[in-house]
From TrEMBL:
Key words of the record: Cell membrane, Membrane, Transmembrane, Transmembrane helix, Transport
Transmembrane regions listed in the UniProt entry: 129-158, 170-195, 223-240, 252-272, 313-333, 371-394, 435-459, 479-500, 512-532, 552-573
CC annotations in GO: plasma membrane
Biased composition (Basic and acidic residues): 1-32
Species assigned in the record: Halorubrum tibetense
The name this protein goes by in its record: MATE family efflux transporter
Membrane topology: Multi-pass membrane protein
Record flagged with keyword Transmembrane: yes
One Pfam family named in its UniProt record: MatE
Database matches in InterPro entries: MATE_fam, Membrane_Transporter-Flippase
């Protein structure tokens, strides 16, 4: 999971160290953290820098870092004064936003790599296997969403306490988050293991889908649920480090885990019979001389191992996640990185636990209702033929790659908003959100152009010469092209939701997400894609669905983020999010907040 050594000094030290991973402060702490400047350096700092307390006392103007027009440093990302150059709460806005966001994008890219690698190999197994993992994910997400909300709460509180220079409180809340999520993950894993097969069997489905896809999805999910505690170990570690301002360490840990998954997947899925890895190796000129296909035949003759099919993909994922969790625990307990967590911080503290629940419950509801929306959408999708189901799953996995830039900015902005509100810098937090939203919309527009231009060759990579492949590719191409219309809106909506979460307004984020998914997507797909009609007796009016079939699914899916972006921007403009959640960063006072 995620916790920290208690010996870490209270401040992050020299900002120059963010550019030099080997740099350490006077206490010997490796400074991978982008955080508040050390107030002890004020005698040599630029006169416009200082601590939040200095501003509160009137010693330094509240807008000393300038607004968008007066401070080119915030716009072009150039170096600000030495003591605040990479600080989240001082100096340039673009620079720390970039430094936080790019490792998050890489982490999410690596996260998606788990799914893409599974899809790549399972696509060589069968189209039904690809459809199975597309059905599995929403039900898995439903149960892990409960604990995910508390992970979000921990990141919010760590960010605000770090910005307020209440590092002891940041460490305590991190420890409480670890314990809370650890306990929940055990119960979720046990419940999910026994719940998954009956839940899948309740889905209304096409007869072919029920006979071929759903049993495979159940096999996959049962193994995943048994490993849920190992999966959540890394999620908590990553979230708490992000709240603190260190996104590079989780990125490095994630890279190791993904490499292991890439190595394990082909062998656990196929074993040494018809393993596509050996075929691909044989196509490499330098490797072909070793005759990889003959090596595979020899290994099969010696072991008779034919792999575990879709269950092998689940085993590879759990094994790789377990390694990530082990490394994360080692980093947190044996190194001085992140919020200062010690063993004592794992003892229950009900003041902090109350705050975690107050922030975490709306986030859990948000994620749970999101999962329920996905399940509802899946229930509608499985009424179509297997090629449509497979195209829906394949398209979603490709679009998850498209989400990466927007997701990176959204998660970076929740740290920037959290730390700046913790430092009483609401003006700076607002400017950061505007810069991130504009950047997100622009980047996602370019991604949409690429997606529309190269859809078919990209989709074709993930399906081999298997039954229904041509039909699946045709549906998936249409799906991705239609959904590309919403990509710029995704960039805006992810940033706005991140801003609300960073401010501790998790209820607001919850409401916007519910509108996005249930009104924008579920209702739209129900009306556009299915065939139904209902008559209202009192007024003798008949309402009929449009019945566009698969095209209606794709259009309905695209409408969600358009609605979410519009509502989010309007709500954000009201300015009701600018109060920080924490009241007192003092380490010896129980935190009291108001959502």
């Amino acid at each position: 999971m995620s916790d920290e050594p208690s010996e870490r000094p209270s401040d992050s030290g020299e900002p120059d160290h963010t550019d030099d991973p080997s740099g350490s402060d006077e206490h010997g702490k490796n400074d991978g953290h982008i955080g508040p400047p050390d107030p002890s350096d004020n005698d040599t700092a630029d006169p416009t820098s200082g601590t939040p307390a200095d501003r509160a006392n009137g010693d330094i103007p509240a807008d000393s870092d300038g607004d968008d027009s007066d401070d080119p440093d915030e716009l072009d990302g150039s170096d600000s004064p030495d003591d605040a150059r990479d600080s989240i709460t001082e100096g340039s806005l673009v620079r720390p936003l970039f430094h936080l966001a790019w490792p998050i994008v890489v982490i999410q890219l690596l996260q998606v790599t788990y799914n893409v690698v599974d899809t790549l190999y399972l696509g060589r197994l069968s189209a039904e296997a690809v459809g199975a993992i597309s059905l599995a994910f929403p039900l898995i997400f439903l149960l892990i969403a409960v604990a995910g909300g508390f992970t979000t709460a921990g990141a919010i509180l760590v960010a605000q306490y770090t910005g307020a220079e209440g590092d002891d409180s940041a460490g305590m809340v991190a420890g409480q988050t670890i314990v809370t999520v650890a306990v929940l993950s055990v119960f979720i894993g046990i419940g999910g293991y026994f719940y998954t097969r009956p839940a899948l069997e309740l889905l209304p489905s096409d007869p072919d889908t029920a006979a071929t896809v759903i049993p495979l999805a159940a096999d996959y999910m049962e193994i995943i649920f048994l490993g849920i505690p190992l999966m959540f170990g890394f999620f908590v570690f990553s979230a708490l480090m992000r709240g603190y301002g260190d996104t590079r360490t989780p990125m490095a840990v994630m890279f190791v885990s993904v490499v292991l998954n890439v190595v394990l997947d082909p062998f656990l899925i196929f074993g040494f019979e018809n393993n596509p890895l050996f075929e691909w190796l044989a196509a490499i000129p330098g490797v072909a001389a070793l005759d990889p296909v003959a090596v595979e035949a020899s290994l099969f003759a010696a072991t008779g191992f034919t792999g575990y099919g879709i269950e092998g993909a689940a085993l590879a994922t759990i094994g790789a996640r377990g390694v990530a969790t082990a490394i994360g625990l080692w980093v947190l307990f044996a190194t001085d990185l992140g919020p200062a967590v010690g063993i004592a911080d794992l003892r229950p503290d009900f003041g902090f636990i109350e705050d975690i629940f107050r922030l975490g419950l709306p986030s859990s509801v948000e994620q749970t209702t999101s999962a329920m929306a996905m399940i509802t959408l899946t229930a509608m999708i499985v009424t179509f033929s297997p090629p449509v189901v497979a195209a829906y799953g394949l398209g979603n996995r490709l679009i998850s790659l498209v989400f990466l830039p927007a997701m990176g900015l959204g998660r970076a902005i929740d740290t920037m908003v959290g730390q700046n509100l913790g430092a009483d810098r609401a003006d700076r937090a607002a400017r950061a959100v505007k810069i991130a939203a504009t950047t997100g919309a622009g980047v996602m527009f370019l991604v949409a152009v690429i997606a529309v231009t190269f859809t078919e060759p990209i989709v074709s990579v993930f399906l081999g010469d298997v039954p229904d492949a041509p039909a699946t590719i045709e549906f998936a191409v249409e799906y991705v092209r239609i959904r590309s219309v919403e990509f710029a809106f995704i960039g805006v909506s992810q940033v706005i939701l991140g801003a609300f979460r960073g401010a501790g307004n998790t209820k607001t984020a919850m409401v916007i997400s519910i509108l996005t998914l249930w009104v924008g997507r579920v209702a739209s797909v129900f009306y556009l894609a299915l065939t139904w009609s209902v008559t209202i007796p009192l007024v003798d009016v008949t309402i009929s669905a449009l019945g566009w079939g698969p095209t209606g699914v794709w259009v309905g899916m695209a409408l969600g983020n358009v609605l979410g972006a519009a509502v989010g921007v309007a709500w954000f403009a009201r300015g009701t999010w600018t109060e920080r959640y924490i009241d007192d960063p003092s380490p010896d006072v129980d935190p009291v907040g108001d959502d």
